[in-house]
Every structure is written in structure tokens, then in C-alpha cells.
């Protein structure tokens, strides 16, 4: 099916020329903002042409990596994550999904399409989910340094307790990519759950901050994500040495980082909704969303 997709695309490009509606700079979506004040696109359904974008990136012959952590009871979410990724995540492109788990034997056997690969890596379990969360940045940093450097172009780091429901593809690619959290995007920034204690390296002052971004999905080119992972890890560890843990752990550090280093592309909450939330009217498509779960049942503490 993958090969068919690529063949059809090539046919369109080479034989027919690529056909898509005429772009306009005066007509488009008016119910949402599709560019930030620093001129990064905000990706919403209806602001891009998938076939056009795919043809651009097919020519570049890109490889996209995804990381996902399935530690402890979170392993139960892995099957749906992997199966729906096969249906919706960069279909037709070369993809490497890295699963980090303490139970490699429990990783479901999901059939991957041609050009797509599943790589399983062992990691130790931890007594505290906060620690698992902190170790993620370290593992992402090391993975980029030791494994991905030469054969991957883009990486996305995604939460396992989520599912794909619709296309997540080349429209999401950029140097540094952040996803707007579905819970706060209509709120005043004073209400964002940033870390508010100045003693923490994740601190964001009351009059600061652009958006509240998700810790559960971020990405970009390797160099940018490496810089992010290294910085967040160091800040987390330096905080820990002083007995401080940011309000939302890595998500707090990521938000501080994205305030200081503006993302070059911002993905709308279509890219990480929450199943318990009713869909708002401006969200025409839910592409990826967190499943409903009982924290008491799945977290180790
Ligand atoms: C595309 O990239 C893959 C993997 O990096 C490589 O094996 C292949 O030869 C490349 N194809 C082209 C047409 O450059």
C-alpha cells in the first residue's frame, strides 16, 4: 500500500504535473490564527495541501524517527499507538519508530509497511514516574548522538498513551516543532501551568510565555531536538541537585525552552487532543490524542 501511494504520487508529479487548488493570500481560514508573531506557521486543517507538501518532501528522500516510551504499565498503550501510527503517521515515508521499554518481550508484533521499521531498546524501570519522565530527555539526547546522526532527518518524541486518528505528515516538519496543549489555548497566559518558582530553571514569569506547549509531543531536525533535550536534561538535573522538581517536570522545562528558543513551526491542538475533551469547533480534525486513563492504576507512585 505504501509503494502504491508513492507510485501514485510520482505519477501525479511526473506525468500529470501536480494539481491542486490555486493558493490565495486573501481567502483562508478566519476562525484561527495560522502564524505566530515571530512568523512561524501554526498548522491547522485547511491551511495546507497534503499532496503538495508530500511531493516536496518525497524529492528530499527524508527519514523520520519517532521515539516512544513504554515503561511499566504504560506498555498496554503501545499496541494501539503503533497500529494507528502505521495508518496515519508519515504514511508513504521512511519511518523508524524507537520504542524504549523495560519489557522488550511484551512489545506487540505490529506489521510495519515497507520502509518502516520498529526498533526496541531496553531501559530500566523506575519507582517514580517523574524520574521516568526526566530520563526521557537523556535517552533522546543519547539516541541522537549515538544512533540517528547520519540516517535520520527529523525526529518526533511522542507520548505512548495516545493514538493517531488522522493524518500526521509532512505539514508538521520544521527545525523546532512544538504542539499547543489542548487544555489552555484559550486562556490568559497568567493561567498557564508554567513553573512559577524563580528558584527553578523552568521558571516562567507571570508576564512571559507565548503558548502552553505539550510535553507529550515535540520534534524537529536532529540538531534542534538534541539541543532541547540536552538543555532540559541539564536544567532538570541542576534543579534536582537543589531539591527542586518543576511543576510538570519535563513539560515545564520544555515550556521554558520554547519561550527562549521560539519554535519554527507550531502545531495546533489537532496534533495532541485529549479523548476526555469534547472537540471544539475550530478543531476540524483530531489527528493524535491522549487516551482516557486512570493515573492511579498505571503510575508507579
Ligand atoms: C534515500 O535514502 C535511503 C536511506 O537513506 C537510501 O538508501 C536511498 O538510496 C535514497 N534514495 C535516493 C533516490 O537517493
TrEMBL record:
<keyword id="KW-0732">Signal</keyword>
<feature type="active site" description="Nucleophile">
    <location>
        <position position="251"/>
    </location>
</feature>
<dbReference type="GO" id="GO:0005975">
    <property type="term" value="P:carbohydrate metabolic process"/>
</dbReference>
<dbReference type="InterPro" id="IPR005076">
    <property type="entry name" value="Glyco_trans_6"/>
</dbReference>
<feature type="binding site">
    <location>
        <position position="161"/>
    </location>
    <ligand>
        <name>Mn(2+)</name>
    </ligand>
</feature>
<feature type="binding site">
    <location>
        <position position="181"/>
    </location>
    <ligand>
        <name>an alpha-L-fucosyl-(1-&gt;2)-beta-D-galactosyl derivative</name>
    </ligand>
</feature>
<feature type="binding site">
    <location>
        <position position="159"/>
    </location>
    <ligand>
        <name>Mn(2+)</name>
    </ligand>
</feature>
<protein>
    <recommendedName>
        <fullName>Globoside alpha-1,3-N-acetylgalactosaminyltransferase 1, like 4</fullName>
    </recommendedName>
</protein>
<feature type="binding site">
    <location>
        <begin position="159"/>
        <end position="161"/>
    </location>
    <ligand>
        <name>UDP-N-acetyl-alpha-D-galactosamine</name>
    </ligand>
</feature>
<comment type="similarity">
    <text>Belongs to the glycosyltransferase 6 family.</text>
</comment>
<dbReference type="GO" id="GO:0016758">
    <property type="term" value="F:hexosyltransferase activity"/>
</dbReference>
<feature type="binding site">
    <location>
        <begin position="69"/>
        <end position="71"/>
    </location>
    <ligand>
        <name>UDP-N-acetyl-alpha-D-galactosamine</name>
    </ligand>
</feature>
<feature type="binding site">
    <location>
        <position position="74"/>
    </location>
    <ligand>
        <name>UDP-N-acetyl-alpha-D-galactosamine</name>
    </ligand>
</feature>
<dbReference type="GO" id="GO:0005794">
    <property type="term" value="C:Golgi apparatus"/>
</dbReference>
<dbReference type="GO" id="GO:0046872">
    <property type="term" value="F:metal ion binding"/>
</dbReference>
<dbReference type="GO" id="GO:0031982">
    <property type="term" value="C:vesicle"/>
</dbReference>
<keyword id="KW-0464">Manganese</keyword>
<keyword id="KW-1133">Transmembrane helix</keyword>
<keyword id="KW-0328">Glycosyltransferase</keyword>
<dbReference type="GO" id="GO:0016020">
    <property type="term" value="C:membrane"/>
</dbReference>
<feature type="signal peptide">
    <location>
        <begin position="1"/>
        <end position="17"/>
    </location>
</feature>
<keyword id="KW-0472">Membrane</keyword>
<keyword id="KW-0812">Transmembrane</keyword>
<keyword id="KW-0735">Signal-anchor</keyword>
<dbReference type="InterPro" id="IPR029044">
    <property type="entry name" value="Nucleotide-diphossugar_trans"/>
</dbReference>
<keyword id="KW-0808">Transferase</keyword>
<feature type="binding site">
    <location>
        <position position="251"/>
    </location>
    <ligand>
        <name>an alpha-L-fucosyl-(1-&gt;2)-beta-D-galactosyl derivative</name>
    </ligand>
</feature>
<keyword id="KW-0479">Metal-binding</keyword>
<dbReference type="Pfam" id="PF03414">
    <property type="entry name" value="Glyco_transf_6"/>
</dbReference>
Amino acid at each position: 500500500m505504501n509503494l502504491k501511494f508513492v507510485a501514485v504520487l510520482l505519477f501525479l508529479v511526473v506525468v500529470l504535473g501536480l494539481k491542486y487548488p490555486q493558493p490565495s493570500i486573501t481567502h483562508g481560514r478566519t476562525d484561527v490564527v495560522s502564524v505566530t508573531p515571530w512568523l512561524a506557521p501554526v498548522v491547522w486543517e485547511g491551511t495546507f495541501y497534503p499532496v503538495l507538501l508530500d511531493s516536496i518532501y518525497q524529492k528530499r528522500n527524508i527519514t523520520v524517527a519517532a521515539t516512544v516510551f513504554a515503561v511499566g504499565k504504560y506498555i498496554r498503550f503501545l499496541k494501539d499507538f503503533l497500529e494507528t501510527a502505521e495508518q496515519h503517521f508519515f504514511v508513504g515515508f521512511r519511518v523508524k519508530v524507537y520504542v524504549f521499554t523495560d519489557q522488550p518481550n511484551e512489545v506487540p508484533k505490529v506489521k510495519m509497511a515497507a520502509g518502516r521499521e520498529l526498533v526496541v531498546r531496553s531501559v530500566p524501570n523506575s519507582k517514580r514516574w517523574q524520574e521516568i519522565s526526566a530520563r526521557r530527555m537523556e535517552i533522546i539526547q543519547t539516541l541522537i548522538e549515538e544512533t540517528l546522526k547520519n540516517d535520520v532527518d527529523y525526529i518526533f518524541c511522542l507520548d505512548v498513551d495516545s493514538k493517531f486518528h488522522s493524518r500526521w505528515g509532512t505539514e508538521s516538519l520544521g527545525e523546532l516543532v512544538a504542539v499547543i496543549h489542548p487544555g489552555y489555548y484559550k486562556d490568559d497566559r497568567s493561567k498557564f501551568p508554567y513553573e512559577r518558582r524563580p528558584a527553578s530553571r523552568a521558571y516562567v514569569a507571570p508576564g512571559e510565555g507565548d503558548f502552553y506547549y505539550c510535553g507529550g509531543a515535540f520534534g524537529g531536525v536532529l540538531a534542534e531536538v538534541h539541543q532541547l533535550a540536552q538543555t532540559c536534561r541539564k536544567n532538570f538535573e541542576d534543579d534536582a541537585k537543589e531539591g527542586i522538581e518543576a511543576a510538570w517536570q519535563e513539560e515545564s522545562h520544555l515550556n521554558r525552552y520554547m519561550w527562549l528558543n521560539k519554535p519554527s513551526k507550531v502545531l495546533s491542538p489537532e496534533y495532541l487532543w485529549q479523548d476526555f475533551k469534547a472537540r471544539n469547533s475550530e478543531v476540524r480534525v483530531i489527528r493524535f490524542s491522549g487516551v482516557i486513563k486512570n493515573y492511579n492504576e498505571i503510575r508507579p507512585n
